[in-house]
Design goal:
The chain is an all-alpha fold and about 450 residues long. The protein is built from 19 helices and no strands. The protein has a domain of about 45 residues.
Length: about 450
């Protein structure tokens, strides 16, 4: 007769216990980072200032001054966060001091009050991202792989620091990974619900970051591989219908408001041009292109960027190709979010040590610089995931039909950013996928060690 009571230690044999423990650690680390985040908030300039400024205008008036370069989802989140948050710094000595010194003309309606709310949202989304990574790893390989990948992303300072960034990556990556998790878990058994859910989530990711717009092609090709052309055509139409119906309200809004067809956001041609000439601040780029403020239409901007891009490529095709390869390689090798932490760059410090000192005492002194160990840990996580991820891609290549979405996502992001501007932030979505393949390697190695010790114990 089975007892209705469970032993207190039985929970240690429950897989859910370990997953919940990892999620709890992930949540605490991200919350601690956000609560300890010290800044005055954005006042003018920077990505969040633009998101908040355009988003608040969109919330208040129903439209902005010009078609946005990104989808509306994060704009609306930032806009509502700013609209309903109390005035930034109101009643605090710092705010009163700045108002006394600079006057209200400089800070008439300061932005930044919504950042704490967005960071708390990112704490939850970052924790749920760890869960999605576990689900993908479990579905594609097994529970140990999913758990190792979840532990790596829960403890990785790159992912922890992302919770404090008030940019679009956290939301877009979470939505995309959710779509991948549903797909890998339920493709063979979920039917139309899986197709609909995947299409909707991919659309929401594209409405957050426009670079996700073509992600459905990965899933459509996987349908062809797994089900053949005839069934893939039918199921693919369901997925695409869910995708385009989700983004259609925003497309229709832009068509009516601006008389211009925009699926998610403007700016693709601008990113192509920046990729050809190298990154420049928006104000400098506008001056170079002859744009006078926001009154320049999106069509005019696209025409100017197209002409400029053609001119750069035709004038020096080899130089353009080398520039794109070099920029992409640099973005791939440089980990994201090291610049979040104050202090000198580790690469710069090591380069100075190699050129000037080359002494053990000088090398040890580098460890005393601000956030040295945190940045070093980011590098260790990044290169461990990158190296083992490449090994995993090669090792599991015979399962490519089953793992097609996890393989194709690398070709997708690397191929797009071979053309568009490439910085570590733009390649951050790949970090989770590197670690999925790396975790598969580590879990396989650990299982081999366990079986070897078990066999040795039996022989004894």
């Amino acid at each position: 007769m089975n007892s209705p009571y469970r032993s207190p230690t039985s929970v240690l044999y429950d897989r859910r216990f370990y997953v919940l423990a990892v999620l709890l650690v992930a949540f605490v680390l991200r919350l601690a980072h956000v609560l300890l985040y010290q800044d005055w908030g954005a006042i003018y300039g920077g990505d969040y200032w633009w998101y908040a400024d355009y988003g608040r205008t969109l919330v208040r008036t129903g439209w902005g001054a010009m078609p946005p370069q990104t989808g509306p989802l994060f704009l609306l989140i930032a806009g509502y966060a700013e609209e309903f948050a109390p005035a930034f710094g109101a009643g605090q000595p710092g705010w009163l001091l700045r108002d006394m010194v600079a006057g209200s003309r400089v800070f008439p309606d300061a932005l930044g009050a919504g950042q704490p709310a967005i960071r708390l949202l990112h704490v939850f989304l970052g924790t749920l991202t760890v869960l999605m990574i576990y689900r993908i790893g479990r579905a594609a390989w097994n529970h140990p792989t999913g758990l190792v990948a979840a532990i790596a992303t829960a403890l990785n300072p790159m992912f922890i620091a992302e919770a404090g960034n008030t940019t679009t990556e956290t939301l877009a990556v979470f939505l995309a990974l959710w779509a991948f998790a549903i797909w890998m878990e339920h493709l063979e058994s979920g039917g139309r619900r899986v197709l609909l859910a995947t299409g909707i989530l991919l659309a929401l990711a594209a409405l957050t970051r426009s670079v996700m717009l073509v992600l459905p092609i990965i899933f459509l090709t996987h349908l062809v591989i797994r089900r053949g052309w005839r069934r893939a055509l039918r199921d693919g139409l369901i997925l695409l219908a869910a995708f385009f119906l989700t983004i259609s309200p925003w497309t229709l809004f832009n068509a009516i408001r601006w008389n211009h067809l925009t699926l998610t956001g403007e700016g693709v041609l601008g990113m192509l041009y920046v990729g050809a000439v190298g990154w420049k601040p928006p104000s400098e780029l506008d001056a170079e292109m002859g744009f006078q403020g926001e009154e320049v239409s999106g069509i005019t901007r696209d025409q100017s960027y197209t002409q400029g891009l053609i001119g750069v490529v035709l004038s020096d095709p080899a130089g353009y190709a080398l520039r794109r390869i070099g920029e992409l390689g640099g973005a791939l090798l440089q980990p994201h979010n090291t610049n979040v932490f104050p202090g000198e760059s580790i690469k710069r410090l090591l380069a100075h040590w190699l050129k000037q000192e080359r002494t053990w005492s000088g090398l040890i002194s580098l460890t005393a610089t601000d956030y040295f160990w945190t940045k070093l840990l980011i590098y260790l996580f990044h290169y461990t995931g990158l190296i083992l991820g490449v090994v995993g891609l090669l090792l599991f290549r015979r399962r490519w039909r089953e793992l097609w979405p996890l393989y194709a996502v690398f070709a997708y992001f690397l191929g797009i950013h071979l053309l568009l501007s490439a910085i570590p932030r733009y390649l951050f979505p790949l970090e989770a996928f590197w670690w999925l393949f790396a975790a598969a390697i580590l879990a396989r190695w650990a299982e081999g060690r366990y079986q070897a010790r078990r066999a040795a114990a039996i022989r004894l």
